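I am writing to request your help with a piece of structural work I have in hand. Here, with my thanks, is the record as I have it:
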Amino acid sequence: MKKLITLFTMLFILISSIAFSQQAKEFNLPPRTKFMPKLYQEIDYSYKLNDLSLNEDVTKNFLNKFTETDLDKLKMNDNVTYNYYKAAQNYFRSLSDTVKKKFTVEELWHVYIYDQKLKNKLKTIN
């Protein structure tokens, strides 16, 4: 009986560690945003780096969900969130035209928030 309890305990610890290691990825979520694993869908956009097509427009509005008034309100009332979105905008602007032509705005936001490895790699592409 004692061996059976020990076996179940070890099995529980193993399953728990595997489950939590899947959620241990580093994300760059906006301030006060709660990660919801059930809604998260991992998408690997790294394949686009090998794609030869450059179909996207270089000029993009990365903060298209915000009006100037919204940004002004954020700046006055929620400086942390404002700084997050300004840092994101600066990141997007720093990307090369090659990267901007390969990715849509939505794809770049996904990379910025959920794929830190690819996010850093995109900065190195000329």
Remarks:
- Residues 16-22 have pLDDT under 50 and may be disordered.
